[in-house]
Amino acid sequence: MIGTHCKSCGEYYFPPRTLCPNCRRTGQMEEHKFRGTGTVITYTTIYSATEDFERLTPYNLAIIQLDEGPKLTGQVVCSPENMKIGMRVRPVFRILGKEGERGIIYYGTKFAPAEDAP
Amino acid sequence: MRAVSIIGVGCTRFGERWDSSLRDLVVETGIAAIEDAGVTGETIDALYVGNMSGGRFVEQEHIGALIADYAGLSSLHIPSTRVEAACASGGLALREAFLAVASGYADIVIAAGVEKMTDVSSGVAADALAAAADREWECFFGATFPALYAMIARLHMRKYGTTREQLAQVAVKNHHHGHMNPIAQYHTEISVEDVMNSPLVADPLRVLDCSPITDGAAAVVLAPSEIASRYSDTPIRILASAQASDSLALHDRRDITTLDSTVHAAKRAFSQARLTPEEIDVAEVHDCFTIGEILAIEDLGFFPKGEGGIATEEGRTSIGGDVAVNTSGGLKACGHPVGATGIKQACEIVLQLRGEAGKRQVDEAEIGLTHNVGGSGGTALVHILSR
């Protein structure tokens, strides 16, 4: 998980940004590799999805705050009853979607419960 | 800046309009608004139309020229502009029209909104609507609109003790209001139990927490206030028009349970109008989901943060309460043709301020407000209208 870090103000960004919203033109951005561990801020379990995700229902979606600070949206792979606000999560590499039976497969990050993550 | 008034309104019946195309809907509403205002085509200086996604819903872009054409105005060659801000496209069209008249650049201007959503399957419609969120960083991971608002709802319930029943009461109230509105998509009253027993869409939100897929169009005619009485016995003044933006993705917000775009648009609008939230008699707010109305009545300043649920439960937002919210039935019961919603809200407030709202009339309504949100809060528009 690669985002950015502004050397001027110290803020971390994920997803990456080319312009620091705090410093704008005076910002100095560099790449930053995130640990990927974080905490669930809020979540939902989706029962009715767009066509691309219908086969996955029900699935959990959460807003996760990474330990470095930025927040992102991602799926959490666990049963819905195990979801709770404040739970710790770690990143896992998963298929996110595919363009039909013979099309391109998209890979990316989902999250899994990690009560032991520091 | 010149004072601006609304001199005519028109709105189609909302619902599944399988018998009408997008252009049919615009012509129907445009004729109604022009007849209401008593203007002729030759006097119209400009046209603005809010439309979120003609390209996805009916594979038609270039909606500006299309509606000028089918409104019979193509031979007059007036400027016709389509504006887009997702579900706030209608509110934005109203604001652009307002600015054109207020600046002195144009006199008679039409602001319209239209969406034809039922020609595609519900999955395609959901995907088209999801384009109002962050495609790369929300939708790519499986986010849907109900899911984003569900995450707001869950955190609001945790932080402020808002209950599942209070969310349901928003839908119950708006169906009660909507059943008195002839143009509404739904004329059925529902109970809290109906909402709680409806299927889950994105936990904790259920089907009856969500606004429907709707076809519809609405239009208003604007004129400088100094000449408005030539056209209308009851011109309605636009006291304020304000717009604000925020991060596109919900996860980047300062506070997930507050729409800062609404807060800032409302502050600017109340400052322009020199009014306070307590002075609003009737409001049309953006209840795309039941939690959306709770956020709106807090973030507009009608109730303190965290008390929107209890205010709804106590009936303070019903007709006869402190402020009558969504007398049209709101997006929930009147329907939500996304590009048309912001204009329909203005039509409803105009009817209320003229005293022409029939069974759902708010007694002695003098000042009204419209609140239109794009996406999960990336854009918000607030207009304040006065008799």
Summed up:
The complex is a heterodimer of chains A (about 120) and B (about 375). With about 120 residues, chain A is an all-beta fold.
Using only CA atoms, what is the Rg of chain B? 19 Å
Number of separate domains of chain B: 2
Total of DSSP H or I helical runs spanning 4+ residues of chain B: 14
- The overall strand count of chain A is 8
CATH topology of the largest domain in chain A, anyone?
A: OB fold (Dihydrolipoamide Acetyltransferase, E2P)
> Gyration radius of chain A, to the nearest Å?
16 Å
If classified by CATH, what would the architecture of the largest domain in chain B be?
3-Layer(aba) Sandwich
Shape of chain B: globular
The CATH class name of the largest domain in chain B reads Alpha Beta
Helix content of chain B: 25-40%
Return the string of H and E elements of chain B: EHEHHEHEHHHHEEEHEHEHHEHHEE
In CATH, the architecture of the largest domain in chain A is: Beta Barrel
Largest interface: A-B, 32 and 35 residues
Beta-strand content of chain B: 15-25%
| Share of β-strand residues of chain A | over 45%
Number of domains of chain A: 2
- Cα end-to-end separation of chain B: 20 Å
* CATH topology tier name of the largest domain in chain B: Peroxisomal Thiolase, Chain A, domain 1
The geometry of chain A reads as globular
